[in-house]
Write a structure and sequence with these properties.
This protein has 342 residues and is an alpha/beta fold. The chain is 36% helix and 17% strand. The chain has an 8-stranded mixed β-sheet with strand order 1-2-4-3-5-8-6-7, with helices on both faces. β3, α2 and β4 form a beta-alpha-beta unit. The structure holds zinc ion.
């Protein structure tokens, strides 16, 4: 049976059943999914809080990207040999369960989780390119064209990828305060950190990079050498080094930046896995259109459902070979992470 599930509820239930011997903690989400279903971030732990090393695997930072992330977590649980006494493993299933269930990138408040981990007591980051192109990135009316017909020029990509903090109804909005998902992750860190001296976080994503290839990204240049040695065979990049992210100062507010802040006195290694789908244009156009649908009451309509299905395909293609190679790629990174910490 495929590790992929068609929706959030099925994915959550399957992991729950597979991880029945793991310690389970549920963080209920205050809202419901599109069919009135309950939502939660579920945390599964294998190993004691006195373990010297801890691996945290997170899925669904970007809601619908949880399709692959949760499949990988399920396959990981089903194939994992006993990790040994000094290693604990924590799985976070659906950091953004609302976005997963609604087949969106963003949270219930329209926030891109991977731009939300900034210090809100400081002035908000500015994105002058977005300011200039906001009307094109996030238009007030949307043409009913198949997403393949929508163009996304390079300046548009740069304008959106860096994130923005001024338009709550716009794409890649980083928020004006910590979201429910961020507060939940911080609570999970508190509950699960235990006595581990070394903590590794793997944050699972899809939608960027070459088709079905799993790449690694780290937030800090110092960590790229470690990432390369821990994940042999994987391309490892420092986030800010990639030209397609535009802004040379990098992307603010990444989830992977939260680990060091939560555990300043421990050894922390945080990386993000990306698994490519289509060329950049399609995922970015889908994100922009999905943002438009959310803020213009289109989500519940037939058109909105079609757009959501296209969004799902853009971040987790139904193509069987994509699913097979992508799942194998992420699973290999998870097993390498375990091997590095063992
Ligand atoms: Zn993502």
């Amino acid at each position: 049976m495929s590790a992929f599930s068609h929706d959030y509820t099925t994915a959550a239930a399957r992991l729950h059943a597979a991880a029945s011997s793991w310690r389970h903690t549920r963080y209920p989400h205050p809202l419901q999914g599109p069919a009135g279903e309950a939502l939660a971030t579920d945390v599964y732990r294998l190993g004691s809080t006195s373990a010297a090393r801890l691996l945290i695997v997170n899925s669904s930072t970007h809601g619908l990207e949880g399709m692959l992330g949760s499949a990988a977590q399920l396959a990981f649980v089903e194939s994992l040999p006993p990790p040994g006494p000094d290693l604990a493993i924590v799985l976070i299933h659906a950091l953004n369960p609302h976005g997963f269930a609604w087949r969106r990138r963003v949270t219930e408040d329209g926030v891109d989780m991977n731009r939300n981990f900034i210090d809100f007591s400081e002035p908000l980051p500015e994105n002058p390119l977005y300011q200039r192109l906001a009307a094109e990135v996030d238009p007030e009316s949307w043409p009913d064209l198949p997403v393949a017909h929508l163009t996304t020029t390079l300046p548009l990509r740069q304008a959106v990828h860096a994130g923005q903090y001024e338009n709550p109804r716009g794409s890649f909005f980083g928020g004006h305060q910590p979201t429910w998902s961020r507060r939940t992750l911080e609570a999970i860190y508190q509950a699960e950190g235990g006595q581990a001296g070394t903590i590794q976080l793997l944050d699972l994503h899809t939608g960027a990079g070459p088709w079905a290839v799993t790449e690694m990204f780290v937030a800090e240049p110092a960590a790229s050498g470690i990432a390369r040695s821990w994940f042999p065979g994987a391309e490892a990049f420092v986030m800010a080094d990639r030209p397609r992210f535009g802004d040379p100062t990098g992307v603010p507010g990444l989830v992977i930046s939260s680990l060091r802040r939560a555990f300043p006195d421990r050894t922390t290694i945080a990386s993000l896995t990306e698994c490519g789908t289509y060329a950049d244009e399609r995922p970015v156009s889908v994100i922009r259109r999905s943002t438009y649908a959310m803020h213009h009451g289109i989500d519940g309509t037939t058109l909105g459902q079609r757009w959501a299905a296209e969004a799902q395909d853009a971040f987790c293609p139904a193509d069987p070979s994509w699913r097979r190679f992508s799942l194998a790629g992420v699973l290999e990174r998870l097993n390498q992470a375990v091997a590095a910490l063992r």
